[in-house]
Amino acid sequence: MSARTNGPDLLQENVGVLKSRMGTFYPGSHVIFRGHDLHADLKDMDWVELYVFGITNRRFTKEQLRLMHSIWTYTSYPDVRLWNNRVAALAGSSRSTGNLGVAAALAVSEASIYGRGIDMRAIDFLIRTRRELEEGGDLTECIRKELECHRSIAGYGRPLVNGDERNRHLLALAQSLGLDQGPHLRLAFAIEETLLSGRWRMKMNYAALVAALGADIGLTPREYYLFMFPAFLAGMQPCYVEASDRPEGTLYPIPCADILYEGESKRSWLGRKESAKSADHKKTISNR
């Protein structure tokens, strides 16, 4: 495909052609997954290993895969008060299907402040800052510029509590696996130290810790973003199941009296005669 073609020419080049470097399904025979026979060459992979192989086309050590498993495990909270879990639970309460509800919950996990949005900002900041420091930059200046641009440092501070219960568990695991000495993790701690010693007083939260570990494993921002997609998944199904087991519509019902409304005042509903008159009028207009 030529990079110079565009518009109709680009579309014409691809008419009747389907090229893929990723894989092919041969019905009744076999499946190629990134150049390998899925049922022969890759049959011993566990699901997470296959998942990250599909994203990166690279193999990871058993220690790295162990860490990746736990990155998902340690942040799977079956608490319906969390915004994305609530979507799954409301689907159950309204008797929607489980897949639809959980898919919607995963979709809203791509939030700007939580979830995938902040994940991308966190790994981007760590990689960019490390590069600037290697070129002679100053860490405090990097932090100042980031705060000026975003008014926050992705992965530092937390709205409810200034700390993160997940960090110590993941750090202990990373240490036991020999994965706690990477340059991005050291930078993440240096940023925290700078923030705490300055006037910002923000501790590192899970987003920065996981982004640093992901960067040290070698994930690019896009690979990291795709890897983190199911991070909250295991906490969603329990919320859906519990809401489905309860009487329909009883999750977070809100009495009308609790709604503070400042819009149009109460209006009378059109009666049958007025509705019919209105319909006749519209019919007359449409016949003209």
UniProtKB/TrEMBL annotation:
Domain of life, source organism: Bacteria
Molecular function (Gene Ontology), one example: acyltransferase activity, acyl groups converted into alkyl on transfer
The protein, known as: Citryl-CoA lyase
